[in-house]
Amino acid sequence: MTLIDDTASISVSRHCRRGAVTASLDNLNFLEPLHANHSVCVESFVSGAHHKSMEVFVKVIGENLTTGERYLAATCFTTFVAVSSDAEEFTVPRVVPETEEEKMVCAGYKKRRAHRLHERDDYKEFAAELSLELPWADEK
Ligand SMILES: CC(=O)SCCNC(=O)CCNC(=O)[C@H](O)C(C)(C)COP(=O)(O)OP(=O)(O)OC[C@H]1O[C@@H](n2cnc3c(N)ncnc32)[C@H](O)[C@@H]1OP(=O)(O)O
After folding, report:
1. How much is the ipTM here?
2. Any idea where the HotDog ACOT-type domain is (predicted)?
3. Which of 24, 70, 81, 96 has fewest C-beta within 10 Å?
4. Which one of 13, 47, 80, 81 would you pick to mutate in the ligand 1 pocket, going by the greatest count of ligand atoms within 8 A of its CB?
């Protein structure tokens, strides 16, 4: 997961050329186990951008170095939010997909974003109910 976050953050930095923080990670699907003696290639690209947020699609590809067989081990979407050290107003650049795969992935951005924001609101309500007390605070 560190590899996923690190790789995605490189795509984000190249896209907006400023600092950004990971806001969420979703649709992380582990599709095939990665074997210890296989190579791992993590690919990512920015698949959608709004004002300050950028969605990144990440593919984790395993390769059996003996047979050359390549397989999709995992995919996920992660969202980063660009930050500024001063009060400067900015909007991150829009995404212009080029390959067929980029066009296919980017086509679902608006729907995923709407779903994500809806879930974020639900999650805020859930989180507001969680206790911050020390677990042993009630012990007599
Ligand atoms: C290894 C690691 O990376 S560990 C994780 C490190 N990351 C962090 O510590 C981040 C901690 N969180 C934060 O700093 C804040 O919650 C932030 C910056 C993510 C969001 O700050 P907020 O003040 O809530 O943001 P705000 O409501 O103004 O929204 C700003 C943008 O972020 C987007 N956003 C905010 N939270 C989320 C979320 N959970 N998922 C997706 N997008 C989000 C909003 O949609 C908005 O997008 P837009 O500007 O493109 O329209």
Report:
1. 0.94
2. 1-86
3. 96
4. 81
Domains of the chain: 2-128 (3.10.129.10)
- Which of 91, 93, 79, 85 lies closest to 22, judged by CA? 79
Cα(22) to centroid(ligand 1), Å: 7
Q: Please tell me the distance between residue 123's alpha carbon and the centre of ligand 1 in angstroms.
A: 13
What are the tens digits of pLDDT across the range 25-57? 988 989 999 999 999 999 999 999 999 999 999
CA of 88 to the centre of ligand 1 (A): 17
Order of strands, sheet of 53-63, starting from the edge strand that comes earlier in the sequence: 20-30, 70-82, 53-63, 39-49
For atom 12 of ligand 1, the residue with the nearest CA is 23
